[in-house]
Give the backbone structure.
Amino acid sequence: MSNRMSILFVFIFFFFAEARDIKTPPEINVTLDLNSSFVLNCTYEFESNESVRRVTWRKRHVNGYKDLAEFTSTEVIMYDHLLKERSQHSPFGQTSKSAILMINEVICEDEGIYECVVLFHQNTSVYTQMISNTTVHVQGNAEIPFELYFLPNISLQEDDEVIISCTANVGTPNGRIMIWTNKTSSDSQRVVLDTSSLSENRRENCRTIAHLTIPYNLTRHDQGASFGCSSQSKQRNDYALSRIVEPIDVFYGPSSVSITASHPHNNLVVGNTIRLTCASDGNPTPNFTWNFNSTDIVNGKSYKLTDRNKTLEYRLKSLYDSGYYLCLASNSINGKKMEMNASVFLTVNEVKIFQLKTAKSCSEIACSFFEECFEKDGAAICSMNIWKVTAFLFIAVSLILVIITTHLCFSVRLRKMTFIPSKNRDKISKYFPQKSTDISQDDLCAYAEPKDVKRLDTQNMKHTDGRDNPYEDPVDIKLLSTFKTSFIPENLSSDTNSQSHANAQVQNETFISINQQRPGSLSDSGEFPKPPDCYDDAWV
């Protein structure tokens, strides 16, 4: 029973007892800077029957490891005198169980593999050694390229070859140079032309100098583009560390010459005003000239040139305006004239009253009032609506007939108002050959309306002067004319008595007697009233 208890006690002791161990950070990254530093920390554990004899930090070199510092429980011995001036350290004790070496003012040469060696010993004077490694990476900062050449850099033309050369400190580790071009102001539009390989050509204090030279053929699309070189490293791979060549000027001749017209080429009629616009790429900006059927066009009454002669505007006067219109674009590069042209053929047609209009859809075409739009086979056509035309003609003819009829009605009414009976007209024409229509208002006094005449007696009445009763049946009264002067018929002989002469005169005279006081009544003197608008000599 006692043996079993002793075995259990030994098992528990070894289970809970701390096992021998050593630890160091596997990797340390430090950026090279004025106040940069890093710490080498070696932590260890040992068994109860053991103790630590010493702890040593050393660094691997080409020929092996070189001791840097040795730690004991009482002191620290520095073997590297240069490191001694920029390091801090302290001896380990029974409680700390760590050997710490702090290196300040880091330089590129501090990069490497460091090794911690712990020497244990037991009561029986048996020594045991354990080792742990730490890799230190010193990262050198990249710098803006200090050289960038772009040759040649003046009078550049399309298809010229230029040389781009860049030199820079790309830092450590994994530094490189990148040459790029950018045709816009956005970083996302940069195009990388070439990249150097990872540089291992280190110099003092982790400076890695990289160099890259490339040829480049210019195109017209490089007009206004900028070129640059960037220094990049593991810590920084953006375009912040860049040197840039200012936007370059690439000269090239006219290209992509085109002519656009304000009207379709085959849908022109005499009287249209057409506008032709010429466009062309080129650097310097091209000059434009025009000609028609090989005849130069100049700005004047017939042709109007605007926008540096890019736009030609004129009115089509006849069918002879059909033909080839040519636009010539030209510029000069280093004394050499560069030209390119484009032409268009225009067909001028006679003016048609019912010209067919076509388009792709009815929304793109404007039909007149007499037309209707319909779509067929992918085309919209304006067609004449015969019913609208018929309705318009019917209304126009109807209006003309109404106007003519109204005019005739007024003419007939006017003639009725100025009608002279035939028996009176014959008497008048016998002594006055002129037409009755030539008698003036002074000769024809008035027209007696039947309502203005009052019958005095149903019987014929004679007056002492031999005149008939003027107040006969109103149906027989038409128009009575009073003449200004009395006359003697030529067929009467000179020996006719005065009474017969008076009767003949009265029988050939007609009157219009209108009672100015009251129709149908006599005046206070017992005489017949005078017709209105007649002078005294006309009334007998």
Remarks:
- Residues 157 and 221 are 11 Å apart (CA to CA).
- The chain has a mean pLDDT of 75.
- DSSP finds five helices and 31 strands in the chain.
- The chain has four domains: 17-139, 147-248, 258-349, 418-540.
